[in-house]
Queue: 3 jobs
Job 1
Amino acid sequence: MSKLFRAVILGPPGSGKGTISERVASSFGLQHLSSGDFLRENIAAKTEAGVLAKTYIEKGALVPDHVMTRLMLPRLEEMTRHSWLLDGFPRTLAQAEALNSACELDVVISLNIPLETLKERLRHRWIHPASGRVYNMCFNPPRVQGVDDISGEPLIQHEDDKPEALVARLRHYKDVAKPVIDLYRAKGILHMFSDTETDRIWPYVSSLLSAKIPTDLADAQRATTH
Ligand code: AMP
């Protein structure tokens, strides 16, 4: 069997991480594993971890490391025969260390977006608190303004996405992410991309992955995911 390929994508809220991840998944046939989506599935299914996680997500806080690792590592174990791109995990050094002991990564993509750009994007972000679904009034608006597409319930703007709290929140993200980035840089697998536009970053990410992912693997993965 060809070698499997494991990648992580790091980036602050509003960095375009979700968009890049979706493009990687469809262009290279990697499984896109999003910790946020996985948490939302657990919240919807009212699992023990989901019920616990919900209280943190509603406050805009990080879910504690032990809850995250207990959720994510078994999920990764189910994926031992697949190549994947992990999005949203690890977010802290403790999570990165837990991931290290579970598997070996090939590439870490880090999105380094100017603070002004992130502020502008997040100002327009609204969420549906019960499910954690996120909308952006500019790029990804709900079908009906102010209302969740699925439940029809009202959307709210996080205290944290309001302009006054945003800068503090992004700084906090940076502080928590720095040791994670440093760890991957020291391992020699970190690839950092900086720009204000996702469409300008994508060609660089795509050519990096084209060089790193063997073509036979990309073809095989695409065949199993479609
Ligand atoms: P996301 O969809 O990645 O923005 O995640 C939504 C929310 O889930 C975040 O605001 C956090 O509260 C929580 N979350 C997702 N991934 C993690 C993680 N690796 N560690 C802690 N909390 C997380």
Note: The chain has a mean pLDDT of 89.
Job 2
Amino acid sequence: MFHSPIVPRVRKRSRAAEVGIPGREEVKFEDVRLFLVERKMGRSRRSFLTQLARSKGFIVEDVLSDVVTHVVSEDIHTSSLWTWLKECDLKNLTHMLVLDISWFTDSMREGRPVAVETKHLIQDTLPEASTPTAVVSVSQYACQRRTTTENNNKTFTDAFEVLAERYELNEIEGPCLAFRRAASVLKSLPWAVRSLGATQDLPCLGEHTKSVMEEILQNGRSFEVERILSDERFQTLKLFTSVFGVGPKTADKWYRRGLRSFNDVLADSSIQLNRMQQSGFLHYEDISRAVSKAEARALRNIIDKAVHAITPDAVLALTGGFRRGKEFGHDVDFIVTTPEPGEEETLIPKVINRLTKQGILLYTEYQASTFDMSKLPCHRFEAMDHFAKCFLILRLEGSQVEGGLHIAEGDSRGWRAVRVDLVAPPMDRYAFALLGWTGSRQFERDLRRYARMERQMLLDNHALYDKTKKELLAATTEKDIFAHLGLEYIEPWQRNA
Ligand code: UTP
Ligand code: MG
């Protein structure tokens, strides 16, 4: 243990001279940016400790800003320190480690940033602005929470997503859903979790999730997540499944065959890529690049013209993530319908025809409708609905996008490929399809779970069935469906669960 004060006062001058000119020292720890709080420490001691740390390769910031990762204080009055920190109006306070001087002295002694332990942490004991009341009312169902695109707990939810993906790739459903549910709860919070204590009344946080959170609160990262991210199988399966048309099963088959890269796959003559996968590889760079809101709007104009040229009274809606207000998405989703019953079934082939003539259709997979009203309700939930739909890759010209394309620097083609999904339900199923395709996936999962568990109803993209009354409930708007379920209406931009 390092018992003595960091440097005896008498040695102050000589040690200060040893540490050299501030700002000239070699930086050894790029990821750690310290800030020493002057309160209680005093200006001259702070200046001395700053130079000492810099001489050992640490970055010490003069000003407290969002780049700081470690705040070090000698203030033993936790509440006054935290009050001051909160008044500093930082965006990133939740990601900062607020540490006692003992962490600093341990680190100076070791000549490197030592692992943060609970004993080093100065925990926030102040009641958080909206924590206590908000916590009590957090529902276990995402459809009873309002979740915008602003995520105050990204460090935790990103880690949970990696853990969920690991289970998903191994086809282990339970823990995968548990991590997705936990992430969804944290995403809905209007405040950032700064201590495990603040999570005690939150639903859906199990032992495993809490231990990951504790690790992140203490060390700023999760070693389990880092292990997964550096795992060869995980990396390869993520790479392979990032290709349009390649699912976890195919990715695993390729991995077990010893393939590790796209070149390996493309060079293996025994692999027969299907049409979707061939397009996936052909347009990989474009499709794996996020689609911007401006690009989604430009595509809406294209589809809108096509649809209305065919059926003037057609209804077209942008759905999926863009309807929820996301700035970027992996594809652009549309729902189209017509008031004339049955006409919606012929609409998509006609749209495809028109896009082909325009020369902008790079890939299409059309699925004719298998929807049959007399077979409702579907008692088993199916991921895919039975409406007519198509999965497209379209060529989008830069000239059609306000502000230009979202493409790599130096890409001078003037166009890019974009994934587009189009689904065409009959008009009387429109509200159900719109609700189902708006997402998020977690929001949809919980809507269906809520309907089943709390209302004895079955909900899917086609219909809502009341098991008690043994009848299908009609709806022309999403609000009708929420009302049938006895739920407060949640706006699309609040469904980013
Ligand atoms: P997406 O996969 O497009 O997700 O499905 P997203 O929320 O728009 O996110 P990004 O931005 O593209 O990544 C949109 C919604 O459509 C539903 C999904 O459940 C999701 O909520 N969906 C998708 C279906 O209901 N059926 C399908 O066949 C595909
Ligand atoms: Mg989408």
Note: The chain is about 40% helix and 15% strand.
Job 3
Amino acid sequence: MTEHKLQRGSERDLGWADEAWSRAEAKIGRNARTIGAAFPNGTINGRYVRGPAHDWVAGFWPGMLWLAYRENGDEELRCVAEACERQLAETLQTYDLLHHDVGFMFSLSSVAQHRQAEASGRGGDADAKRHALIAANLLAGRYNPQGEFIRAWPNWDGEDHAGWAIIDCLMNLPLLHWAGREIEDTRYKHIAIRHADSVLRDFLRPDGSVCHIFRYDPESGTPIGSLAGQGYAADSAWARGASWALYGFALSSRWTGEARYREAALRVARFFVSQLPEDAVPYWDFFLPEAGKESMPRDSSAAAIAASGLLELAEQLTAFGGAGVEDAAWCRTSAERIVQSLCGRYAEWGDEHEGLLRHATGYYSRGVYVDESLIYGDYFFVEALAKLRGRKELFW
Ligand code: GLY
């Protein structure tokens, strides 16, 4: 059992979070035996579909195992997480299959493993650290200096993606910050900051909503305009996109200390929370046509990501003091409201369904994992619970 003292950020009774944590931790332990060193993505008929190690979601399962391991020290969880990490490391040879989401993939596997080994007093994990540094180099290599953005994807699907950047990439930037710090090379930080500033300028709207994809001329770098991507329309507000923006800007604040990222995260947070239905879990897009909206699926993954992002933003606002302290309290209360609803109405604690959170939506327009469980929804739900119980350290 890892020895630590948890410091809660709230005086309110969070017994419900302890209870939910115990149930989630127990389910992760049982899933570790049935899923093993594989890469669950979304559920179909109650069972997670396992995918390849080069999929963008491949880091979330080992990440979840590390979240549980650092609380209970169960060696079985560590072995499975390490076996996942070895498979992820092999994908570093398959250059054409990788893209900007190496940040998601390697922050929650290789970086998490290295950090856990550091925290256990073993001086880190040299192999895992090297894998994460290689991944960071691949990510840095996707930077377009003319347009000051990180290119999202290769030209797959026969479509030219050379000038495409996407909102999710804010969550990949911590890998660059971490790598630059580890090897004392400021170039990584400069790339991360330039990309985040382009997102601030081109993705974030005055009302706090964001687009999913923004296109630049890859040759001149000129901003062209937004695309719908996984959202309902180019000018709509894909719910998970908003949650990536909220958490991603909060993490940019964590790594740089810059107020403009906290302000951006808070603007997105105010928008996100103001648009929530009564049970605090959004429909898959915030700007769906009113007619028929209530029969549209929810996205519990967006709720879980936003809740964990709100808790990070609360940390940032508290750390910098001043007027932000009141905003921090609001962020925390909002996060608690969302997680409490997820625990009470969306969580599946038993084994008849492998996922932890029901009613998540992967890619509505393509009919991919609609109203199912998603491994990233589960990850951020567990991460938010850990934070509510006082765990401040992140893998990001
Ligand atoms: N990063 C892709 C998604 O959120 O579905």
Note: The first strand starts at residue 40 and ends at 44.
